Amino acid sequence: MAKVYIDPLTRIEGHLSIEMDVQNGKVVDAKCRGDMFRGYETILQGRNPVDANQIVMRICGVCPVSHGEASSRCLDDAFKIKPTKNGRILRNLILGANTVQSHILHFYHLAALDFVDITAILQYKGSVSSLLKLKDWVKNDIEVKKGRPDEITSAGPFLPRYEGNDFYIKDVDTNISAIAGYVQALDIRQKAHQMVALFGGRAPHPIALVPGGVTTVPTSGKIKEFKKLLKEVDKFVNETYVPHVIAVAKAYPDYFKLGQYTKFMSYGVYDKDEDRKTFMFEQGIFDGKLEKFDSKKIREQVKYARYRSGSNLHPLKGETIADPNKGGAYTWVKAPRYDDRPMEVGALARMVIAYNSGNELVKKELDGVLKIFNSELPVVLSALGRHASRAIEAKMISAEMKKWLDELEVGKNPRNPYSIPDSSEGEGLVEAARGGLGHWIDIKKGKIANYQAVVPTTWFCSPKDDRDVKGPVEQALIGTPISDNLNPIEAARIVRSFDPCLACAIHVVEGDREIGKFRVC
Amino acid sequence: MALNRREFLKIMGGTTAALAFPGVIFQGCKKALEKASARTNVIWLEGLSCSGCSVSLLNKLHPDIVSVITEHISLNYQGVVMAGTGSVATKVLEDAVAKDRKDFVLIVEGAIPTKSDVFCTLGEVHEKAVGVKKWVEQLGKNAVAVVSIGTCSAYGGIPAGKSPIYGANQTGAVPVSEILKGVKTVLNIPGCPPHPDWMIGTLLHVLLKGMPELDEYNRPVMYYGKTVHEHCERLNYYKRGIFASQWGEADGCLYNLGCLGMDSGCDIPVRKWNNGANSCTECGSGCIGCTEAAFPDYGKRGIYQKLQANRGDDKQIAGNSTKGLKGGIING
């Protein structure tokens, strides 16, 4: 049996590493390790509750929008207020634009390099100037590398990479088309971020998300600008992104059978009313059959995480005392469980739950994908299913955003005022691009007494729980064939299909006066 | 400025190509080789960060990010975008240390934990996880220049934020300049996130024209020399004594609501975010002082605090501001 490590797993947000036991060319055991810890909780305690909104956004620069949205909803709940109609729609538009941005970034800039052969650009015969530039550049850099063995790397950030037979797509045209997509996607995701900024103030770290709604008043100028950008983004999603995901799926059909997982959770997203009763993508649990979601059933367990605080606590009562040298622990990520079950969250979870809730729109799109591959629903519960879910979700959100823009009341109030209560509790649930995100606040004497965030990556990159049940990524890795222990690209593909975001996953710690006494090994 | 400008510029010239290729240079490739090697090697490490600076960098326009990576820099290591992963990625760093290379710029995003290496590790060498602090020390001493990108790396930022209840933060997070004290002067490009123009603009200025003029916090004056207040779209309201009573009000200066624009060196109201889409003050949210060393604490003040100011009453404004703290400029 061989120990195989991927450390660091790049092209994700944050510090993640994977430890695997490989026997007879297959993964038999896997551990997900979160390698960074910042301690957001102590930083938050004692502060003005409204400050939480800006501070928790900085948990993650890839999904600050979702943290801002979860935090605003959490403060809404604690302050006993609701957003205005404009506020609700603007929040949906900001979140929607960022989710589309995130899915495009994830597929092209994070995941695609596990499938696409960048060196195929050398055979490019067309005349698009950015591709010619890239071609000349790769050519030069490969020649530099030849003459210069001491060079750190060349053609960075595209080379070096895992090398092996059949690691990358062979068909030159598919590769070149995907590389063109990579370059174009840089511009498109940047435009999607412009959309976030039009109403969110800026991206990343949108400043306009506040309790009660959004500060930006929707003017006809801003709406027009948003529409213009959306048209371009929508075109790219339909004509480039979706076809590329299908092309990769056709080249790697095995990944419909790899990286499988079967338990899903969604908090519901794109609020259709100010009370959060109805959503574009439904709320629910799917574990063989659909169940009603109840946030009281969420617990966090810490047997294998580097904390010495109580285990199996609801986030509102959560405590998190760091213990860097805890025996048996292997990660900074806690193990959240819903009704004692590890849940996968993300676009796939949203699609599966919406599909089973009878969502017509999702049914049409997902059936469309299944038809291409002549398959049925279980096939989607896989590494490729995750990529496909993100693509069709981006398509549906882009289409829906056009309608939301028309529902905005030009020049009308985007937010309701608030006052900070002396003591209160709040819960804010939202779906980030990569899955269900929950924030909980406990306010005492008008200040933050406790703040907890349970994020998507904590759900799927979780370690074993108190009953030794592995987290979703760990389970999904088992059985993955590894052709070369030194180049474990297959495992990297599985982990990336979940779209992990580690800065999000490890942010929490509750105050501990003895915290300065860490023994440093 | 202690930063050695000549060394920094050395990597730019044609001489580098010759130095780097002691062997035979084939005739046909010579031009290509020179072109490729004239690009500055960049190693970009992430400490206690949220990757927001990396994401903001991807929003770069004019020159776009593809031109930057293909024409101006050679991005050897960048965790968020690089193809290499696991040992393939770590080898880039290992080699740079082992071969004592001195021909790269080190960019650091995120603060550096000092209480334990376990708080942030990056890759494994001989099956042992390596703390990011060690990489910064080893690579920082040899780097031609060290650039701190973002407020966390420049001044500690949120990871170094003090708890109002427990005092110092738990990880002992410090800015990169603390780690490299006495070894290197660190050029700071703060902001949470920094505008992509600030990052690439500063880097290109250094590469093409030399060191830009820096302020007392080692920030380029060209971007951070004036305050948000001085650039503000709402400055006229302030001058006329019209103050907003709610965030998001289209008319009125946001000072009374706790806007930190008077204390923050930053040109966003004129530069705008995301290709002109919006600015912090335009959208009615006010400035949260994210380019300043005092961010996010501002002493005990925190980010949002309601204040009272009357027309032209500068004295009161100065008294309520962050004067005396690191970070105050207009009142400093």
Descriptive overview:
- The complex is a heterodimer of chains A (521) and B (332).
- In chain A, helix 4 packs antiparallel against helix 6, helix 6 packs antiparallel against helix 7 and helix 8 crosses helix 10.
- Chain A has a three-stranded antiparallel sheet with strand order 1-2-3.
- Chain A has 521 residues and is of the alpha+beta class.
- Chain A folds into two domains: 212 residues, Cytochrome-c3 Hydrogenase, chain B (Orthogonal Bundle); 234 residues, Cytochrome-c3 Hydrogenase, chain B (Orthogonal Bundle).
- Chain B folds into two domains: 220 residues, NADH:ubiquinone oxidoreductase-like, 20kDa subunit (Rossmann fold), CATH 3.40.50.700; 102 residues, Irregular (Cytochrome-c3 Hydrogenase, Chain A, domain 2), CATH 4.10.480.10.
- Chain B contains 15 helices and seven strands.
- A five-stranded parallel sheet of chain B has the order 2-1-3-6-7, sandwiched between helices. In chain B, strands 4-5 form a two-stranded antiparallel sheet.
- In chain B, a hairpin with a 2-residue loop joins strand 4 and strand 5.
- The radius of gyration of chain B is 21 Å and the shape is globular.
- The two termini of chain B are 22 Å apart.
Helices and strands, with pairings:
The complex is a heterodimer of chains A (521) and B (332).
Chain A: E1 2-6, E2 16-23, E3 26-34, H1 40-44, H2 49-57, H3 64-79, H4 85-111, H5 129-147, H6 172-200, E4 209-210, E5 213-214, H7 220-251, E6 263-271, E7 279-287, E8 290-291, E9 298-301, E10 335-338, H8 347-356, H9 360-372, H10 383-407, E11 424-432, E12 435-444, E13 447-454, H11 456-460, H12 472-477, H13 489-497, H14 502-505
Antiparallel strand pairs in A: 1-2, 2-3, 4-5, 6-7, 7-8, 9-10, 11-12, 12-13
Chain B: H1 5-10, H2 15-20, H3 30-38, E1 40-46, H4 52-58, H5 65-72, E2 73-78, H6 86-98, E3 104-109, E4 121-125, E5 128-131, H7 132-142, E6 145-149, H8 151-155, H9 176-179, E7 186-189, H10 196-208, H11 221-224, H12 228-231, H13 235-239, H14 268-271, H15 314-320
Parallel strand pairs in B: 1-2, 1-3, 3-6, 6-7
Antiparallel strand pairs in B: 4-5
Helix pairs in contact in B: 4-10
